[in-house]
Amino acid sequence: MTQPKREPFTGELTHDPRVLLGPGPSNLHPRVTRAMTAPILGYLDPDFLAIMDDVMVLLRHLFQTDNEMCITLPGTGMAGMEAAVCNVVEPGDEVVVGIHGFFGQRLAEIVERHGGTAIRVEVDFGQVVGTNRIEAALDAHPAAKMVAVVHGETSSGVGQPLEEIGRLVRERDKLFLVDTVCSLGGAHVPVDETLIDICYGAGQKCVGGPAGIACITLNDRSMTVIGARSRPVDTWYLDLTLIRKYWLSERAYHHTTPGPLVYALHAALRMIQEEGLEPRIARHQKCGDLLKAGLTGLGLELFGDPVNRLPMLTCVMIPDGVDDATVRSRLLQDYGIEIAGGFGPLKGKAWRIGLMGFSCSERNVHYLINALREILAD
Ligand SMILES: *Cc1c(COP(=O)(O)O)cnc(C)c1O
Fold first, then answer.
1. CB 354 within 8 A of CB 22
2. Which CATH number fits domain 19-27+277-377: 3.10.180.10, 3.30.70.330, 1.10.287.110, 3.90.1150.10?
């Protein structure tokens, strides 16, 4: 389809703000937005290096880790996923991937794009992967190098328990990789305690920052495995041994760090520290519970394993006779609220409602529930 010809915008963009209650991006606190307008610094300016050092300290707090390697990457959450996989996987390596939704599928696909073999341990949408299934996969593939899972599966609204798998993977002396793009900043991600070796997140979900910046942490075990590769990482841009030199040792140029995104992430991380991890996680839990109660109060049915439903992403079934697109466009046009449609088997059948970072407030829950009540009554 060709685009209709039109004149470009002139002057500033004038769209109204939205209430972002989808799977990300989430709304930014004004302080985070303001941080992006701080003066630009060169990527080796001592003031910039000091901000980077601060970001590393704040990320260690967020990931609950002592890992030295706790840095940002240019790019969205997918840059974190790609980096986490491609730095470890060499052609022929086997990786056990626990799949409980769309992002697990992506992890497996990325393993294969880098020449690895993904051993898929897949469960139905809405369920979580049992440790026994991972154990059976490791028994059948004793040479596997790594086990990878998604913590918060944004496609199904279900959270994968990590502790047992972490212990199993460490017993078997494999690497444990966890995607926390959805959950980081809104749920506990105790990297060291859970025996996670490689973990990544992104700015724009519960962390409360902008899109375009990923965060990643790796422990010494995983950096040793990466250092022992028989050939260099097959992407130069996301090669963590090179990027490490910029963040931690020689401070040598690798790429131009996107300063305003780092400033904004820094502000978001400071706000996490000021709020406190516990109160912040409690806020996400409380608002998530309130939303679920409000939706069931409207007579709607929640999706997914009730024991493991995520606080920050709720998947709810669309009632019979209600048109998905009509409701979502009315929410957007009449109320300025964004929510998302269902994914994969839930396409057209469910909505996905996010309560992430600054978007996660009781006020937003009440606003959405009232808007839905009005729309569904028509
Ligand atoms: C959003 C998301 C990603 C991808 O992040 P982008 O910022 O969209 O690239 C990966 N994994 C999970 C679990 C996510 O929710």
1. yes
2. 3.90.1150.10
